[in-house]
Amino acid sequence: MVDTVLFEFLHTEMVAELWAHDPGPGGQKMSLSVLEGMGFRVGQALGERLPREMLAFREELDVLKFLCKDLWVAVFQKQMDSLRTNHQGTYVLQDNSFPLLLPMASGLQYLEEAPKFLAFTCGLLRGALCTLGIESVVTASVAALPVCKFQVVIPKS
Fold it and tell me: Counting C-beta atoms within 10 Å of the first and last residue's C-beta, which end of the chain has fewer, N or C?
């Protein structure tokens, strides 16, 4: 429990620090890029550390299931609520009570602030996938707080 609170506090402080000086439109993209990059590095480290006991993943879907179960539990102490795929390289991961959005879930006025709280996690997913041998593009969307959908697109070579 203490680790969860510390992680949420650290994440909130990272976002607040990057937006502390009103970065403006160009600066916002840079701040999102910095958060995503930090998440990518953490995702790489977790991707190296967590699956040591597991056999090599045979398919992309196995890797995504690993992210939804094991990685999500390691980071957020809960599993992802849903994983959907079109079996052509696009996966949608949904968390109905995303922990980093719960503090702002009380009103719609925070909906426009949500993307800056998702950049780190997009990087985290992309970094873990990269370590497990899958290049991807990860985006996040929020239609209603605290529900969050992460779309993972894996380009076919």
Answer: C
**Token pair recorded at residue 7:** 């992680």
List, for residues 20-41, the tens digit of each pLDDT value: 766 666 777 888 899 999 999 9
* CATH number belonging to the domain at 4-153, selected among 3.50.50.60, 3.90.180.10, 3.30.1380.20, 3.10.20.740: 3.30.1380.20
Cα–Cα dist 90/137, whole Å: 10
Distance spanning both ends of the chain, measured CA to CA: 42
Give φ, ψ of 153 to 5 degrees.
-110, 125
pLDDT tens digits, 87-142: 888 999 999 999 988 888 777 777 888 888 899 999 999 999 999 889 999 999 99
The DSSP string of 71-123 is IHHHHHSS--SEEEE-SSSEEEEEETT-TTTGGGTT-GGGGGGGGGGTHHHHH
For residue 100, give Cα distances in angstroms to 60, 75, 132, 133: 26, 11, 25, 27
What is the distance between the alpha carbons of residues 92 and 106, in angstroms, rounded to a whole number?
Answer: 25
Quote the pTM value: 0.87
